[in-house]
Structures are given as C-alpha cells and as structure tokens.
Design goal:
The protein is mostly helical. It has one domain. The protein is built from four helices and no strands. Helix 1 crosses helix 4. The longest helix has 23 residues. The protein is globular. The termini are close together.
C-alpha cells in the first residue's frame, strides 16, 4: 500500500511498513544498524506529522494509506531502542528470550 502523498519523502522506507509485530521484529533483527539509523532519522522527523494525519480518522476505519503510515511508525518504535540505547538490533543480555505478541492494535 502506498503512503499518503504528504509522506512521499518516506517512500524509500516503505518496506518497513509491516502489519505485525513479528514481521517488524524480524526486520529489525535482519537489518544493519546503519539501515535502522537511516530509517529512524527519516521517520522520527515525521512522527508528529504522522500522528496528526492518522488522528484525523477513527482508528477502526483508517484509510489504507493511513494504515500503511501507522505501520511505518510502529516500525519506528521497533527500532527506537536499538538506535537510541542499545546500539544493536538484539536486546542486550537477553540470550534466546523471545515474546510473542498475540494481538495487534489494528490489523489492516
């Protein structure tokens, strides 16, 4: 799905617009820190605009482009700790620990 026209600058990162937490987590683990940093730098600048855009619609009836934008921002959350704190994709000192998300806020 395409992003809203006002967010065309984020199109290079559209492959981060993943619908589920397991997909976002797998993408994080498969990405280099340089790739995550580039995505973070571009998307973080647009976070407030993205929230404002999505807030124009009821959560249960977001248009497709807003769902794509929301998923992109959910991936931003997924990379924020690795970029801001850990400086690595995996949680430090967590071994093989893993949590499964059993429900998503919006599936679209």
């Amino acid at each position: 799905m395409p992003l809203p026209a006002d967010f065309a600058d984020l199109e290079p990162y559209a492959d981060w617009a993943l619908a589920t937490e397991p997909e976002r987590y797998a993408r994080r683990l498969a990405s280099s820190m340089a790739d995550m940093q580039a995505f973070y730098d571009a998307a973080f600048l647009r976070l407030e605009d993205a929230i404002a855009y999505c807030d124009k619609f009821p959560l249960d009836s977001l248009p497709d482009d807003a769902v794509t934008l929301m998923h992109l921002m959910q991936s931003l959350v997924m990379v924020s700790f690795p970029v801001e704190v850990w400086k690595q994709a995996r949680v430090p000192d967590s071994g093989a620990a893993y949590l499964d998300v059993i429900a998503e806020p919006v599936v679209g």
